Amino acid sequence: MQTDPVLVESLVVFSIVLCVHVAVWNQLSWSCIALAIQAFYVQHKWDRLLRAGAAVFHFRPSANSGVLPASMLLPLLGLALQGRCVAAGNVHFERFAMVVTVTGMMLALFLSLIALGVTRPVPTNTCVVAGIAAGAIFYAVKHTLTVSEVIEVLEVLLIFVYLNLILLYLLPRCFTPGEALLILGGISFIINQLIKRSLGSGPAGADAEPLLFLLPVAVVGCVLLGVVFALLFLFMESDSWAASAFFHTMTAVLGLGLLLPWLSLLGQQHPVAWLLLFLTQSPARLWMLAYWGVLALAAVAVVMRQNGRRAAGGKKHRASSAARKYFHLLVVLTFGPGLALDRPLLHLAAVACLAVFLFLELVRVFRIRPLGAPLRHWLAVFLDERDSGPLVLTHIYLLLGVSLPVWLSPGPCTPRGGLPGAGGLVPYAGVLAVGVGDTVASVFGSTVGEIRWPGTKKTFEGTATSVFAQVIAVAIFLIADSSINLNASYSWVVGSIAMVAMLEAYTSQIDNLLLPYWPFQVLAFECVLGSQPPLYPWTTSASDQPVLKTWCKESERTWEETHKRLRAATEISLRRWEGTLQYALGQKVWVSTKQSCVGATGELVAKYEGPYTVKGKINKGPLAREKSSSINPPPPLEMEGGLAYKVTARLDSHKGGKGLQYLVDWEGYSPEEHSLVPASQVLDPNLIASFHRLQPQRPGPRRRGRPRSRRLAGS
């Protein structure tokens, strides 16, 4: 029996979610668990839509939807922040954390409703589960949020809807549904908070340091620049010198005329003066910048070396997975010293690097001179199946993956001296998961790996060495960074590393983006009260603290409820199982191909093949089939350099927005293959003439000399 990677990925995510709620349980926890259950059900509907090509937008192929892991990240982030603020006694940011949690739930629920709305036939059971989850979420919203907070959640949801309509249309095949939820949901939340702060309704008492606003302003500026020029270049050529000059001019106007004044308003001081003062505070910062400049030159050298190999080996040469890991190594060398020595400078450098990456990607996509064409040539050697859309996002996702833990920490409600326990490793989550774990797993798995995980190409050796390398990296970080004190939390750290390594082995999402979130979540929850919560009910120990006793009871109750639900689901599945179909010898059968009627090249592809004649049974398995003498469907005819298909009958005609079309019965194809064909694609005019002689009342081509119908106004 082949293992389903999506099922194993979901099991790992459920394990992390349960461990998290063992650590922190509040009034929103039941809603989060209900959301996880409905996301698991809806994920299969999304996967079916993606395989059938029936999704609303064009998502990235060769990957599952990734709805479950993406749906839980933002709610869990809000719960971690809420637990920290409750411990610190900060009521304002506790309310803000609840808004973050509910916003993540509503965005995930909206994504689920899209899948249920376009699935045919309507999945009754999944709709019931989604309805129960929606009821739990709405009940939690009613009893936890105020009216103004509910309006804020709806504002983010509205921005998210519009961003989906615009960006998913302009950027087909760039995201999976889960990746779109993460990226567009995060951008929507940033836009909403930036607008509120600009209008003077931001968080009370929030620090006005410009460093905190660099990231949101840079992201909003790049998104605005990309959307405006994407719409503009639909109506004009983008690779001319005139268009390139206009692009650079408008970029300068946007940066100097909008973004800099915006930063000055938010930070309450001039950004350029603040930047010069920030960079020259100590000579060590200048040395750090020089060190990073050397690493940037090394990255450029890697790109040029791979392109040199491509020139020697031909255009089909592609960089291997091990060659791509050079950039992961450079990321570790960049972020490791920055985290240990100067995190504010690393925060600033990561934002600047992200802005440069986004700008260069716009230059590459729009073919802006003089760098557009060279960038396309240089990056072509690093493309793989994940870069099937107009944007190349893997390097941007790598930067986001290692930078987000830095940008999100220390965050509000952080005690002096940093987070206690394993919380000191929170900023290192991206470096551990992507820089160390993913790199070691890929290199060792592709070179010495032999035992593959069931249902995936990843190997057991790669996963094991990944966990070992991350544990060694944690030991190195303990030596290099004196602010980290695990406080006897080693088992929690190793357990979180192992679970994230399993997630890396089974996920089909872009791991550079997804993986850093999960160790960030788990490590952040561990530090809520500065002690290690029990991983499982049977790992608890006696304690006189009431809060720990409550955690243990809630943990045991959660596991009992989970086992009860799993047993009930198993019983329902067994009752619905109808057994294997039985066939008789000599019976003729049709076999489904599970493909669409018209392929990507316009060639007709049958949904069913046959008829086949049942000849005998093979080892209690499927019956052997023999195709009948008549070849169905028949091969197409080659006419004037193209393919043509014979038609048995014309069934109907239709005239609408796509012009005159005929419903035809293809020769040798089953009735399920009937399809509408434009009149211009009917090669034999006698077919059209004979159809309208038999059915003159049906819509047909306009006769010559007959004027178009017009309405005449009376005198």
Description:
The protein is mainly alpha-helical and 715 residues long. Among the domains are: 208 residues, no CATH class; 122 residues, no CATH class; 37 residues, no CATH class; 107 residues, Beta Barrel (OB fold (Dihydrolipoamide Acetyltransferase, E2P)), CATH 2.40.50.40. It contains 22 helices and eight strands. The strands form three sheets. Strands 1-2-3 form a three-stranded antiparallel β-sheet, with no helix packed on it. Strands 6-7-8 form a three-stranded antiparallel β-sheet, with helices on one face. Helix 3 packs parallel to helix 20. The longest helix is centred in the middle third of the chain and has 31 residues. It is globular and about 90 Å long. Its EC number is 2.7.1.108. Belongs to the polyprenol kinase family. Keywords: Endoplasmic reticulum, Kinase, Membrane, Transferase, Transmembrane, Transmembrane helix. It is an enzyme of class 2 (transferase).
Brief summary of the model shown:
With 715 residues, this protein is mainly alpha-helical.
Topology:
Elements: H1 5-23, H2 29-52, H3 67-88, H4 91-118, H5 124-144, H6 147-170, H7 177-198, H8 211-232, H9 241-267, H10 271-279, H11 283-313, H12 321-341, H13 343-366, H14 372-379, H15 394-408, H16 429-447, H17 460-480, H18 490-506, H19 511-514, H20 517-526, H21 546-576, E1 588-592, E2 608-617, E3 623-627, E4 637-639, E5 642-644, E6 647-656, E7 659-666, E8 675-678, H22 685-694
Antiparallel strand pairs: 1-2, 2-3, 4-5, 6-7, 7-8
Helix pairs in contact: 1-2, 1-3, 1-18, 1-20, 1-21, 2-3, 2-4, 2-5, 3-4, 3-7, 3-20, 4-5, 4-6, 4-7, 6-7, 7-8, 8-9, 8-13, 11-12, 12-15, 12-16, 13-14, 13-15, 15-16, 16-17, 17-18, 18-20
